[in-house]
Specification:
single chain; 3-stranded mixed beta sheet; about 10% strand; CBS domain; CBS_dom_sf
Amino acid sequence: MIQSFADHKPADLAAALMEMSPSRSAEIAAALDDERLADVLEEMPEEDQIELLGTLRSDRAADVLEAMDPDDAADLLGDLPDEQAQALLELMEPDDADQVRRLLHYEDDTAGGLMTTEPVIVSPETSVATCLAMVRKEKLPPALASMVFVVRPPTETPTGRYIGLVHIQRLLREAPHEPVGNYTDAAIEPLEAEDSLQEVSRRMAAYDILAMPVVDDAHRLLGAVSIDDVLDHLLPSDWREHLDDDEEAIS
């Protein structure tokens, strides 16, 4: 039975788990590896995330949270009682926990609350070839794979001063040995962490862009907001539940 889910996309597996009895979904979740379960949790509504996470031992739950994108992990922990959230953060690896704690400081419907702290970040001297290799990572969401963000060192968030972004389509046309700093687009004004969801969506639509940088007062890169996270917050909270209805209507 569990093997039959091996080829399911995370969203399809999430939908299947939500249709199962709590005991059966817990059994399936226990059999999935951390990365797979993290992907599935990211596709679930908040209530179902909390219920499924609650079936795991605390140390396993912390491992799964580490495997989730930091913004998704922060959203999930933000919906838990403070005592439970803090206990799970203490069990996580310090670096992962620190990223999530930074995100928990922001309101959900702001650029800071929407952003991930793990976009593709490079220094100006990084070669075009290296940038193209970085965006090929299987785990990287398509929206974040569409560009790299160029900063002064350090390149871990919060970074050195933000310089600009480069679209991957541009890099595909350039010589592999060239430094990415030669092609930086500084015309796209970055978001600030406190910008509202409405401002984020307006700016992304205006620039026709899949991901936007978020900077602090010192112009250091804090992270990036991708279009999938914006849509998650703009759509009704139960939009995933209606996918099955739409698919049945089409079939």
